[in-house]
Structure formats: C-alpha cells, structure tokens
Amino acid sequence: MKRGALIAAVASAALTGPAQAMVGAPTPGGHDFQEPATQVMREIIDFHNFLLPIIIVISVFVLALLLWVIVRYNRRANPTPRKFTHNMLVEVIWTIVPVLILVAIAWKSFPLIYMQERIPEQAELTLKVTGNSWRWDFEYPDLGVRMTANLLPEEEARAQGRPYLLATDTPLLVPVGATVRVLVTSNDVIHAFAVPAFGVKEDAIQGRVNETWFNVDREGVFYGQCSELCGVNHAYMPLEIHAVSRAEFDAWVVANGGALASTETPAEGAPAEGAAPAEQPAAPAATPTR
Ligand SMILES: [Cu+2]
Fold first, then answer.
1. Which residues surround ligand 1, an ion (CB under 5 A)?
2. What are the pLDDT digits (tens) for 107-128?
3. Which of 13, 171, 184, 240 to pair with 163, CA 20 to 30 A apart?
4. Ligand 1 mean position, distance from CA 230 (Å)
5. Residue ranges of the Cytochrome oxidase subunit II copper A binding domain (predicted)?
6. How far apart are CA 216 and CA 177, in angstroms?
C-alpha cells in the first residue's frame, strides 16, 4: 500500500512537470515538519529540535519522581512519615534549575520571534492577502495584480494529479529569493494565512491588517490552508503558492495585467533615468503603515 501511494505521488509529480514540483505539502503518514523553504522555517525547526529533548527529559524526570513517590511513600510502604517539611538544598535546586532552563530557552527563542515578527526593511514586494468566507483574495498593490483563489474541484484535481483540498484554481506566484512582505486581513470572520514550509501563520482579522513576511529560497509548489476555525467551509480554503524564477514571475505579472516597473528600478538604481521619477512616488504610497 505504502509503496503504491509513493509511486502514485511520484507519478503525479512527474505528470505536472518540473515547474510544478511539489515541495511544500503534507505526505501520507508523515509526522515531521515539511521541508523548509525559508530561513525562518529552518530556524523554527532548529528551535524545535533544541526544545524537544529538554521537554522529554523534564517529562521523564517528573514521571520518575511521581512513580518513586507512589512506590516508596505510599501508606503501606511508609506507614509513619517523617515530620520535616523543608530541605534547603532541594529547594535551591528546584528554583535555580528551572530558571536556568527557561533562560536557555529564552536565549534561543527571542531572536527567532524577532526574526519572524520584524518585517525586513528591504522587502521588495508587498502581497496583500484577504480572507473571505470561503476563498482567498490576493493582491500585489505595487504591481497592480489582483486575483481570487478558490478550491480546485475534486474531479479537476484528480484529473490533473494535484492534491485535492490543497490545490487552488488560481495559484499565486512569488519570485524565488525575494523578500515578500505580506499584509493579512479579512472581509468577514477570522481566517489565518498559514503556509507550513514558509514558517508563516498569520491571523486574518476583519478591520485590521497583520503583517508577516517570507523569502522562499527555492522553486516549487507550496501548499497551505486557512488555519483558523472560520466556519462550515473552513476545510475548503487552501493556499497554493508557486515559487518561480524572476523571469517567470515577471511574465505572470504582465499576463495578469500588472506593471513591473516598481520592482525593477530599486534593485538597479541608476539605469532608466526617464522612468525612475515617475515610479518613485508610487512605491511609498502603496506601502501601508500601522
Ligand atoms: Cu478560514
């Protein structure tokens, strides 16, 4: 069975072609994280690997203590308990050791939180994501691209060899290696924009704009889902993001009626003098601040 499923998965990946290589998706029977595609997700996995042994040691230690107390100090084994209530050394140890453990965890986790929450200033692309009951709206305000992604119907997904409940009818494209600043909001109830391979999970809340960011370091197809219990069709709000080369992304933007100028000029700097002044005012105006 397992081998069959694997062959089917490989075959479906092959059918959809090299550009469609499925990278960020859950696998049958999988129990670990998806393969990371951003530095943030790599750091999250590192932190997880740091935390897991600590949690296991603490849990095993507490379990052993409990068992020891149950066996050694029950009424039958220990009919006349001692009267003392304090032991200075034990109390010092059980105060200091947990503090040291917490300091070690904080030492590792605070930089990670900072990295996740602080949007890099050189973010070159702004993506606005709006949750709706039940579909996602995407917009690149600086490029003039706007689109709506719905769940790909089951028959179509099967016919195309794409994963039902993860594939959408209109995949979103992002360029590889670009820092994408994501503005997340909602039109109705609370949704959440979550893409596991990117290490991104941001609540989409009506009437407010949350921020997050990602920078995908390789090409591939990455799937996510709404991860907030938003209503009856909560399970039918997939996210499909294709990380592609800059040229492919540019072509896609143009094909969707967008203009490329604002992404190209800041990187190049000097060339195209005639075009630069016209584009400068457009970029700050389209960058909302809290
Ligand atoms: Cu939702």
1. 191, 226, 230, 237
2. 999 999 999 999 998 889 999 9
3. 184
4. 5
5. 122-255
6. 6
Domain 125-256 CATH class label: mainly beta
53 Cα–ligand 1 center, Å: 34
Structure tokens at 256: 């969707």
Ligand 1 mean position to 233 CA, how many Å?
A: 8
Does the domain at residues 34-79+87-117 carry the CATH identifier 2.170.150.40? no
Q: 3-state DSSP call for residue 262?
A: helix
Cα–ligand 1 centroid distance for 192 (angstroms): 6
Q: Is the distance from CB of 225 to CB of 34 less than 8 angstroms?
A: no
pLDDT by residue (tens digit) across 214-264? Answer: 999 999 999 999 999 999 999 999 999 999 999 999 999 999 998 886 444
Measure the CA–CA gap between 23 and 167, rounded to whole angstroms: 13
The domain limits of the chain are 34-79+87-117, 125-256
* Cα Dmax for the chain: 94
pLDDT tens for 193-219 read: 999 999 999 999 999 999 999 999 999
Task: State the Cα–Cα distance between residues 215 and 217, nearest whole angstrom.
Answer: 6
Relative to beta strand 125-132, strand 180-186 is parallel
CA distances to 9, 53, 179, 194, 246 from 28, rounded to whole Å, are: 10, 26, 31, 19, 32
| CA neighbor of 178 nearest in space, from 137, 202, 213, 148 | 213
Cα 149 to ligand 1 centroid, rounded to whole Å: 13
Which 3 state secondary structure label does DSSP give 136? Answer: strand
